[in-house]
User: Fold these one by one.
Assistant:
Number 1:
Amino acid sequence: MRCAIVIAWLAALLLSVPASAHEMRPAYLELHEEKTGEFHVLWKTPMRGAMRLSLSPELSGATERLTPVTAREHGGAAIQTWRLRAVEPLRGQSIRIGGLERTMTDALVRIEFLDGTTWTQRLTPAHPAAAIPTLQSGLRVAGVYLTLGIEHILLGIDHLLFVLALLIITEGAWRLVKTITAFTIAHSITLALVTLGFVHVPQAPVEAVIALSIVFVAAEIVHARGGREGLTARAPWIVALVFGLLHGFGFAGALSEVGLPQGQIPAALLCFNVGVESGQLLFIGAVLSLANITRPVCGPLPPWASLVPPYAIGSVAVFWALQRVSAF
């Protein structure tokens, strides 16, 4: 138990380093062919405060802009739209995101052609360009969204802190299995409902309440350490189920930023969700494995050490809650 406290302490401190969650949101470029060779362009660039990342899409072939660029801001992103004509067919050209190599974010590119086929590709700072093939298989799209899901959960520090808090307060292997299963089922439901358009919720309040959910579980850990067990300590799966619905809205907001490829929505949604679950299991496995490896070498700890993880987690979550409420 003492060793578990050490691991939780270290994990809480490491995860608490970032000042805010979801910093590494991807850029998103969509080209939709409306007439032969004519495309509607949607270009979303992440913003940090009032500053927009200096990124620009570039095609290797000649293009002609048909309309001026219309710009607006929404949901922490700069959104630009315009129409262009491809002088040469896009298939076979290469597309590059200029400036991506100087950032720590990715870019998702999706092209919808007039014949109903689509091409989806994830570009990274290490590989900021790609060739547009003649056709793209569903397997490649699945791989793109699977990777996005894994990266979203592993870079979503608020979701990881919530899972870590559940790991700290949940006693027993069977209880832990039920708790993680409940969290998985809950956020999978709301992720699907929002992504498929059955439910619409404003993202800003959701993000604020997600932060408050972390504060709640952190407070429950402190109460349990003081001998006053609350609902989370007695039935953590119930709390995981309720707040899991909320976290699913957060996952859906991230997925809505990049969108889903028309004609392959079920597969892309499923793979994104599988990616989220895979990343979550990787995190849980890493924490538990580290606890087991270090258990033999852990010495006695002072009583106050058990309070460090919940206070570290709760303090960061309070900061996030205030930050997100002030952004309404």
Number 2:
Amino acid sequence: MKILCVDIGTGTQDILLYDSEKELENAYQLVLPSPTMRVARAVRQATRERRPILLTGVLMGGGPCQWAVEDHLRAGLPVYATPEAAQTFNDDLDAVQAMGVRLVSEDEAARMGDRVVHLVLRDFDWEALRRAFEAFGVPLRPDGVAVAVFDHGAAPPGYSDRRFRFDYLAQRLAEHRALTVFAHRGEEIPAPLTRLQAVVRTVREAFDGPVVGMDTAPAAALGATLDPRVASWRQCLVVNIGNFHTLAFRLREGQVEGLFEHHTGFLDGEKLDRLLGRLAEGALGFEEVFDDMGHGALVFEVAPMRPEGVAVVGPRRGLLRGSRHPVYFAVPYGDMMLAGCFGLLCGFAACYPEFAPLIRDSLQGAPRPAPWEVER
């Protein structure tokens, strides 16, 4: 059985082609520029050439591509976008037009021809991945696909997107506190998660088998728990320090006892150390993080915990070098960059139990019970 796992971040997209007939360490892997970085580079090239751009496709991750579009507009150059593509920048299309983006219909876009640089927005590019694998003689014919993206969700007008994002995290954990609750079958993606829904639709254009969508940060944290050292801990903190967002979980035997999420850009080592300490103490409150421009905090268990360790993954993990906590840079199956992909495998097993035995056999050294067997 083969499962294509794609963890889409801000800086990179990390790809694992899982094969149940191979040792996990021998599975084919790619670490490539993220879709938003690819679009940003193309926009900046158009800016240098003083050419207008047309954006079509679907809602995808913003950040670098949005900043490039804003620079293009500041340079006095036109930007056209279809409504769905424009939602990449804001769910409120009036706000997108206020940026200076000109909305056009699909028919109008089709008539623009080569007068514009046409860029198709999407987080998942099946054709690009197929060509990349087939260039090395590897046919891309998976039996399942699992994709992770970070999704703020479509907040109602006037409602904070940071609070809305944290509401989703809290709601998912309200009844079951296993990290796999953040994995969804493709047809069961919650309606507010518009970016994840767009990814699944894009996958479905090329693939009609089982699909799982998951949030990136829980996927990375889940993957970190597969490191043998982390798996041996009964109680610990697990932190994913991404380029844009940092999410920390307090875990006891695989169950979430608390969490916080913040913007990485507002953190330094000292502040992150303090937040982790307060999470372990059971004293961290929602406002303490939200009022600092983070998403929030939630503690289910207020009794202090003495963690056996703090497992850290993510491209900005260096923030915790020299920490006062017992930090361990987790390397599940020898590769920190693929922590999210290994978490996606666990999420796939949780969503499709019929495939779980095969996946368990591949995850030598995984904790017992396996992550998808923790009550969810």
Number 3:
Amino acid sequence: MNGEVNNNKQKLTAKTIVLIGIIVFTVLYFAEVINTLKYLYGVIFPLLMGATIAYVLNILVSGYEKVFFPNSYNVIIIGIRRGACIILSVFTIILLLFFFLRIVIPQFSQSIGLLAAGFPVLYDNVYDWASQHADEIPVLQQKLEGLNMDGAAALKKVVNVLGDWAWGTVSFMGSVFGVAINVILAFIFAIYILFGKEDLNDKFGKLLKAYMRTERRERLCEGLRTADETFSNYIIGQCKEAIILGLLCTIGMLLFRFPYATIIGPVIGLTALVPMVGAYIGAAIGFLLIVIVDPIKALFFILFITILQQVEGNIIYPKVVGDSIGLPGIWVFAAITVGAGLLGIAGVLLGVPVAATVYKLLDKSINERLC
């Protein structure tokens, strides 16, 4: 017994020394460690992208496998089921991308073009109105004197800022050729994962069983199951919500004869992919488009969107989608804010399911300790 205790103490001491050594080495050679990590990330990036593609495709593949003759014992059907379901899933993604590229993006681009065309007039009108009332608000008068630009100059300044940001983003992402190669490699890796997912799962289970104690292995598996459930429900839920909200908005705007209905509806559906705040971003774009044509209708549009959001969020969404995120609203907002600050658009999309997974695991751990 004493020998086992001493052995455990020696292992703990060795682990502590190694951990301290890693920390000291990282502090002393911080720049070199960061550069090495960046290089390794660049090397394995296609594999990470492939795993992500495989995960998203697997949601569709699993769904198709449930309806592709699931009870058949025919050898041919069993042999082709996985390949056929993968092909159907890829075809579904291609159709969604086709819809996105041919319908949503042109509509979004057209809305930006209309907004840019009408922005100078709107700016000048707001500027004239503010100038007339500047005497009543001294602070406003000082701001107007310092502004000293018309609508066209303001639009040019906005375009220059966006242009600098866009070129910086392109430079950061690298060449188009490199991105294309990464996407092709990632897609091939994803197909291999999907064809051998059961075998990979078995090997991963054996690896954990060989090198991890039972208690830690069960905790890790529980965490992975929670993450899988959260991410899959989040992806499916947000896609359903975006489609529902986009269709309802387009139909409602056509019925109430709002201008740019076929443009604003898809844009609101697209921005609804961002939880909690996305639809309001789309509504802001719609308001700016309509206010250029008819300010009164723009106010009614805000009222329409507010009512639509309440109906969709409280009646339709819970019945069709359910509680796909499982995260309180305040934490959703916090996850979006932190994710955007760390990883930009990717952080906005991934921050919520990551936070929801941590929230569920922490909630379960707290309840277990309190019981």
